[in-house]
Amino acid sequence: MDVDLRDTPAEAEFRAEVRQWLAENLVGEFAAARGVGGPADPVHWEVRLAWERKLAEAKLLNISWPTEYGGRGGTLAQEIVFLQEHATAAAPYWVGTQGRDLFGPTLLHHGSDELKARFLPKITAAEEFWAQGFSEPGSGSDLASLRTKAVRDGDEWVINGQKIWTTFGAYADWLYVLCRTDPDAPAHRGISMLLIPADQPGVDIRPIQTLAGTMEFCEVFFSDARTKADLVVGPLNGGWKVAMGTVGSERLLTTLPYQYMFERELRDLIAVLKDRGRTKDPLVRQKLAEAWIGLEVIRYTNMRMITSLMRTGTLNEESSISKLQWSEWHRSLGELEMLLLGPAAEVVGEDYGLDLFQNSFLTSRAETIYGGANQIQRSIVGERILGLPR
């Protein structure tokens, strides 16, 4: 596939507009928080929320969403331009990832007009926050084996079960949850995506401390929790296809701004090593060169994915290649950071204070699981792209 990395005149004009806006607004407390946060990172929540609302006022988030839902009504290309410029400026990462980047696009494609009008404007304005209820103990990569049940009771659903690894669950106003609504159907059928209010007696959200010491993940227990019968995204018992669209978005578009931060991380590593005189070692330079080459491969792969997305309007199985590349590369970079920084990398600050590279090393261990475990991605590449037998 041909890939043209140059901006069109319209894209160049929009890029200049974004740069100017960032230069004028990325000041004060926002400038002091440059580079903080990530799609699954709870640090500096309040300043990132304030920044997100500032972006929302300027309609620089949800650029491609329709204007009736608070978007700009722009193009996907403009969305990509914004992500690139936002990352280049090292602006704080917004906190509404689950609603804005994952659930929102899913609702746009699969939701009823009533559900879109009810929920999308509040997501766009950063007024309501969402969390995902997909994985369960024993049902992570094998998501179709989930056991959380929803039983119809008049004009409501009654939900019982457990979810885990619910990112930002402690901040959520609503949960979008996969439930088994037809226990007699085959594994990939009989599943529906329900929208469940988090603030009710039947929902118990418990934070989980991660290896890096953060608390962004939660486990959620549903005990006769309730939600209205019409709060179903997509067809009843058709939630599997709806959820696969969400996971496809997670593999590329949601992680793109995160990947754009990798270049800055590698640049920071080189600066630290240079300051310590380590870059005089030819073996160190070779390792850094290999890391840079890997980052370039990721960049060109993503451009092919973006080109395909803009031409067809959908993400195909090739997004699994992108997911495999960036997650494996970033995990290897974390290991390289610990190796090259030496024994000092094993010492943490007061109250388990991790520096940039220590945090990256620890959090990157989980990135091969985000958006579908890499073992699953390899099966998708083998079977659906290469045509290999199951």
TrEMBL record:
Q: Which Pfam families match?
A: Acyl-CoA_dh_1 (PF00441), Acyl-CoA_dh_M (PF02770), Acyl-CoA_dh_N (PF02771)
TM ranges = none
**One annotated Gene Ontology cellular component of this protein:** plasma membrane
Q: Which family does it belong to?
A: Belongs to the acyl-CoA dehydrogenase family.
Protein name in the entry: Putative acyl-CoA dehydrogenase FadE17
GO-annotated molecular function: flavin adenine dinucleotide binding; oxidoreductase activity, acting on the CH-CH group of donors
UniProt cross-references to InterPro entries, sorted A to Z: Acyl-CoA_Oxase/DH_mid-dom, Acyl-CoA_Oxase/DH_mid-dom_sf, AcylCo_DH-like_C, AcylCo_DH/oxidase_C, AcylCoA_DH/ox_N, AcylCoA_DH/ox_N_sf, AcylCoA_DH/oxidase_NM_dom_sf, Mycobact_Acyl-CoA_DH
Tell me where in this chain the Acyl-CoA oxidase/dehydrogenase middle domain is found.
131-224
Cofactor dependence is on: FAD
Keywords associated with the record: FAD, Flavoprotein, Oxidoreductase
Acyl-CoA dehydrogenase/oxidase C-terminal domain mapped to chain residues: 237-386
Name the source organism: Frankia canadensis
Which residues does the UniProt record annotate as the domain Acyl-CoA dehydrogenase/oxidase N-terminal?
8-126
- EC number(s): the record gives 1.3.99.-
Keyword Oxidoreductase among UniProt keywords: yes
